[in-house]
Design brief:
heterotrimer, A alpha+beta, B alpha/beta, C alpha/beta, A: alpha+beta, Glutaredoxin, four-stranded mixed β-sheet, 7 helices, 4 strands, 12% strand, B: alpha/beta, Rossmann fold, de novo design (two linked rop proteins), 2 domains, five-stranded mixed β-sheet, four-stranded parallel β-sheet, 15 helices
């Protein structure tokens, strides 16, 4: 068994192999692999004996279950109303200038992907962003540069 | 007509009391019907935005006959401008869990779930520890009740209760046809009580202090307190517990920056109230209050005169266009038409009168969409376009 | 008896069964409510919203397909609000749809177009969304074209593929404005787990899913004086074609169909039923041989139960889903492919034709047959055995294009060679038919007596239940078949691949010990095939079934082995069933494919 099959099988052992266990398994794979490739979706389908198209249809419904190649750190900048009012575009520009990628793109070293996302629930501390599961609020371009500098060292 | 109810602060939800074990244990000794009656007489209505009477919901689930039932805490807080549920789960999770267990006791459910939105994944580790502690206590008092966290993965529509069930069942989060309603056929087709985080926290208050204490707060048809998530152009953004029924003018006097042009009540799916109507607008559930009464999940976004209402609407419509599940025609296509339509008017590609056609379209969406999302897009659209038409045109 | 409740529709009180939806109640009261996502074969989706009605006392309109009637409910189906809402919804669908109707294959047979006409959508105020969409057309499958720009997202295809077929080639993907019907990773239908059955095509209300049509290729062949164009017609076509020509469902048009084909200019109009009879000879012998090996020789390698192989949708299904059971599938080619192989050998020789110049065309109730004809295994004549496969619908288009007044055509007879058939071959078109035909022949071969059912009608294998079981006890067999004395031959019949899956799961888990299984990919068998007239629904399938059995009953020969042309081909060309020549031309192999 290759390591990804092992991962899927251990997730299935943990959560179960019924349809209602599909989301936790997809999330577990994304946690580890950052995105769901066709290969990974087929292996999940096999493990749960679900049609592959069903896995695909379900996964693509959820914004956080990426199915295109993603970097190690996925930056999701909130674009909903308050963050947008409070300078989301400046934050995006700061990130784009620093990482030299546009929204929807991944750095050539596959370290960072930049995405926009809908309301993160930090409107009172806008603008906000997620890097993987970590939340950063009350952002300024300077603050963002500082945060990314730390990630670049990782 | 001016509303005379004043803004009154309250402190129930976040009051830190370390007596949840006592309250839980005490409540679980009480008669189920008595508890249901307590909840009904409190007149608590759901705090997620739809405002369904909580006591009635629990009563219906109690009456449903089934070998298995579920209690679900809806923590898929996705409405733009709302962030109270996260704070409740961070600061007073035991209240929510106790309320879930009490609900389980009343309706006969042994399993509870917290559906936590993917954007709040960082809450999961701490919550799991607290759940372990909570379950340990339940075991100690011989009460059979477990709680599991089910993580969402980024889909606003999963806050709609039947979409949430679909999601928990491993499917696309698409709302179901109703009837049947969740109290008869919810998660896995079993009777299910699904309540917003805040609603559950209020039931805890009611079971602790009695329904009278809750009922005496607020106004007719809108009893009790409510958490408000305040954001936008305000010097003091944050979460505030206030009695229901205050006038929007009072609210703006307290939270505005002196230049408030409009307030969006209830998030992107709520209404925009322009300055001229602050005085006649009450914040509460629909009822016989004088003036306009607005239901709200607690999102209050303030806009000052530097903001373009076109941009605000553009932002909302982009949100709905992306977050609609896409299954029903009025919502899927309607949201795209509204979004492209206002831009076409702004750019002059369509005449100003096209806005009236779009307003008609939102009426159709309201009448025919399958779920609350598509039905409520009309709220923000019509209230913005009708009040700030000039900003839409040029 | 279910409980009755009273409801009011448009002011008139009706007593209806409790549990009925508003739509069903209205239909039974003769009130028409438009629908799009609703289909009688499928579960309720309630997503197109075009069937909305007003319920007095409710602010919002209700989707009548998804709302159950309740006691004293007052329903209004034709208020201003209802009409405007429906009109608006149709406009919305049109705005998202490539409404270039004149360039659409389904022009004239499109439910959206009909509604647009009914509601007189004269101007399009809304902004066309098509330019904003990244629409693609998938043309890579030999059977099905998927054009996303014509899709209205009613999900009938998705439900068909899941509920009727258990294949799930199609799914709903993405959300919001990007929501669409997709295959796995939007790969071509040709590259995913798809059986090409075409049920999605048959259930699609618009031109989003259509058969890949080969009408122009056939016209070209017919017009080419160098080519000898033969056409074979499958049994189910003759009970479906009439619907395309203005007849009521269930009208048999065999003679008119033959006349029309002759009018179109085919050089020879022949019958797939002939090779259906041949299939019975080969497959029946194969079954008996397998039984002998299992019971007498105690050969552990012989695979039972044996399943039929005439349905190419089923064949591809088992190749994907149960590749470990491929040896259980009869090695017989389908009647279409037997015909193709013989057309360019036996027929060519007898008619003294250069096989290179024969164009072998078939008309089938089926889209999977297009794929089957393109399989690399199907070249045993030295050429591609079947060159072009048409569906019933394509044939209807050709007849219309030729300006033929179909209703006035005189009945004509099939040409010879390969035009004679028995009633046993005709019933191949209905679920259970192959089983019945095989039993009529096999029982008689083994015992020397007719199968012990009144008038040869083996009723237990007929009907519309998804899975049916029957057993036939063999008594006093002829000497050669003595080993079968007292053996109870256990049979199963399944139609619709979701039922095929049930049967195969039972076989796999050893819960069933059948000897012989007939499986047809499509509900109702070929008469409900993906290439049949649209609409196809339970009532229409029932009528076509009646027509099939009536055709059988009216034929002088009812048993495959009594077909004189069958006797002749074994004498002149093939030798004996399962003989060397048969093996070369009439039998095939299968390939395992991916299940996920």
């Amino acid at each position: 068994m290759d390591p990804t099959q092992e991962l899927i099988s251990s997730l299935a052992d943990r959560y179960g192999r019924s349809r209602e266990n599909l989301l936790p398994i997809l999330q577990g794979v994304v946690q580890k692999e950052k995105y769901l490739s066709d290969y990974l979706m087929i292996e999940i389908a096999r493990e749960l004996d679900l049609p592959a198209a069903e896995v695909y249809g379900t996964a693509t419904f959820y914004s956080f279950l990426e199915y295109k190649q993603m970097g190690t750190y996925i930056i999701r900048v909130c674009k909903t109303i308050t963050c947008s009012m409070k300078g989301k575009n400046q934050i995006l520009l700061a990130i784009q200038n620093m990482l030299k990628i546009g929204v929807g793109e991944t750095t050539p070293d596959r370290k960072f992907s930049l995405l926009e996302t809908n309301c993160l629930g930090w409107c009172h501390k806008a603008p906000a962003m997620l890097i993987n599961d970590e939340v950063y609020t009350e952002l300024t371009p300077e603050k963002v540069r500082g945060i990314l500098t730390e990630y670049l060292k990782k | 007509m001016a509303i005379t109810y004043n803004l009154k602060r309250a402190d129930f939800i976040f009051r830190n009391e370390n007596d949840w074990e006592k309250i839980l244990n005490r409540t679980l000794q009480r008669d189920k019907q008595e508890l249901i009656n307590e909840l009904i007489s409190s007149e608590l209505k759901g705090r997620g935005g739809a405002g369904f009477p909580t006591g009635l919901k629990w009563k219906l689930a109690n009456e449903a006959v089934s070998d298995e039932k579920y209690v679900i805490c809806n923590a898929d807080e996705g409405e733009p401008g709302t962030f109270k549920d996260r704070e409740i789960l961070t600061k007073v999770p035991f209240k929510v869990m106790s309320a879930m267990a009490i609900c389980g006791y009343i309706i006969g459910a042994k399993k509870g779930f917290i559906y936590l939105r993917g954007e709040y994944k960082y809450l999961q580790p701490d919550l799991e520890k607290i759940i372990a502690e909570f379950e340990y206590y339940c075991k100690e008092i011989n009460f059979d009740f477990t709680i599991n966290i089910f993580m969402g993965s980024g889909a606003y529509i999963c806050g709609e209760e039947t979409a949430l069930f679909e999601s928990m069942e491993g499917k696309r989060g698409e709302p179901r046809n109703k009837p049947p309603f969740p109290t008869n056929s919810g998660y896995m087709g079993k009777p299910t009580v699904i309540n917003n985080v805040e609603t559950l926290a209020h039931t805890y208050t009611i079971f602790k202090h009695g329904s009278k204490k809750f009922y005496d707060l607020g106004v007719q048809f809108s009893r009790g307190t409510k958490l408000f998530s305040v954001s936008g152009d305000t010097p003091k953004p944050g979460i505030y517990e206030l009695e229901l029924g205050m006038s929007l003018q009072d609210f703006v006097d307290e939270f505005g920056d002196g230049d408030t042009k409009a307030v969006q009540v209830g998030g992107a799916s709520g209404f925009l109230v322009p300055r001229k109507r602050f005085g006649e607008t009450a914040i509460g559930f629909k009822g016989k209050l004088t003036g306009i009464s607005l239901p709200t999940g607690g999102s209050m976004m303030l806009f000052n005169s530097s903001r373009s209402m076109f941009n605000v609407l553009d932002n909302y419509l982009e949100f709905f266009r992306e977050e609609s599940c896409g299954q029903c025609t009025p919502c899927r296509v309607g949201c795209q038409q509204l979004h492209i339509g206002i831009k076409a008017v702004k750019q002059g590609a369509k005449p100003a009168s096209y806005l009236d056609k779009l307003l008609k379209l939102t009426e159709t969406m309201q009448y025919t969409a399958k779920c609350g999302l598509g039905q409520s897009v009309a709220n923000s659209f019509s209230s913005i376009v009708e009040n700030f038409r000039e900003e839409m045109i040029y | 008896m279910s409980k009755k409740i009273n409801i009011t529709i448009n002011g008139v009180v009706y007593e209806v069964d409790e549990g009925l939806t508003i739509l069903e109640a209205a239909q039974s009261a003769g009130i028409n409510i438009p629908t799009l996502c609703y289909h009688k074969d499928l579960c309720i989706a309630g997503n197109c919203r075009v069937c909305v009605v007003e319920i007095v006392g409710q602010k919002r309109l209700a989707a009548s397909c998804a709302t159950p009637c309740q006691e004293n409910m007052e329903i209004l189906t034709n208020t201003l609000n209802v009409r405007n809402s429906r009109k608006h919804i149709i406009e919305l669908l049109l705005s998202e749809h490539n409404a270039d109707c004149t360039k659409c294959y389904k022009n004239g047979n499109c439910e959206l177009q009909e509604l647009a006409a009914e509601y007189k959508i004269m101007s399009q105020d809304l902004i066309g969304l098509v330019p904003y969409k990244d629409y693609t057309i998938d043309m890579f499958s030999p059977s099905i074209i998927k054009d996303d720009s014509r899709c209205i997202r009613c999900q009938r295809c998705v439900r068909t593929c899941a509920e009727l077929q258990g294949v799930n080639a199609l799914t709903v993907a993405y959300k919001g404005d990007k929501m669409k019907i997709a295959t796995f990773f939007e790969n071509s239908m040709n590259d995913v787990v798809c059986t090409n059955c075409g049920q999605c095509v048959n259930h699609c209300p618009t031109g989003a899913l259509i058969e890949k049509n080969y009408i122009e290729e056939v016209w070209e062949a017919i017009s080419d004086p160098d080519k000898h164009v033969v056409i074979q017609t499958a049994p189910a076509v003759r009970v479906g074609l009439g619907e395309e020509m203005g007849f009521e469902p269930g009208e048999r048009v065999t003679g008119k169909m033959v006349a029309a084909l002759k009018n179109l200019g085919f050089d020879s109009v022949l019958d797939t039923d002939f090779t259906a009879d041949l299939t019975i000879m080969e497959e029946g012998t194969e079954l008996l041989t397998r039984l002998k090996k299992a019971l007498v020789d105690k050969d552990k390698n012989v695979k039972l139960p044996m399943t039929t192989s005439c349905s190419p949708g089923w064949v591809k299904f088992i190749e994907h889903m149960f590749p470990e059971y491929l040896e259980n599938v009869s090695t017989c080619k389908s009647p279409q492919q037997m015909f193709g192989a013989l057309a360019k050998t036996y027929y060519a020789k007898a008619r003294k034709l250069d096989p290179e110049k024969i164009v072998s065309v078939s008309v089938m109730p089926c889209t999977a047959k297009k794929f089957e004809a393109s399989r690399p295994e199907m070249h045993d004549s030295g050429y591609r055995d079947v060159d072009i496969v048409l569906t019933t619908r394509e044939l209807a288009i050709m007849i219309k294009q030729a300006g033929i007044d179909f209703r006035k055509l005189p009945d004509k007879k099939f040409d010879r060679l390969m035009g004679e058939s028995s009633g046993a071959a005709v019933i191949f078109g209905a679920t259970g038919g192959v089983m019945e035909a095989a039993l009529r022949t096999a029982y008689e071969l083994v015992t020397g007596r007719e199968v012990p059912f009144e008038d040869l009608n083996i009723m237990p294998v007929r009907g519309m239940d998804g899975v049916r079981e029957a057993s036939v006890k063999i008594e006093k067999p002829l000497e050669n078949w003595a080993f079968l004395d007292g053996v109870e031959l256990k049979c199963a019949v399944a139609h619709g691949l979701v039922n095929a899956k049930k049967v195969m799961d039972a076989v796999k888990s050893k819960k069933a010990d059948y000897h012989f299984i007939e499986i047809m990919a499509c509900p109702g068998g070929c008469l409900g095939g993906g290439g049949q007239p649209i609409p196809t629904n339970p009532e229409i399938r029932a009528k076509r079934t009646q027509a099939i059995y009536a055709e059988d009953k009216n034929l002088p020969i009812r048993k495959s082995h009594e077909n004189p042309e069958i006797i002749k081909i074994y004498k002149d060309f093939l030798g004996e069933p399962l003989g060397k020549k048969s093996h070369e031309l009439l039998h095939t192999t299968y390939v395992g494919r991916n299940r996920y």
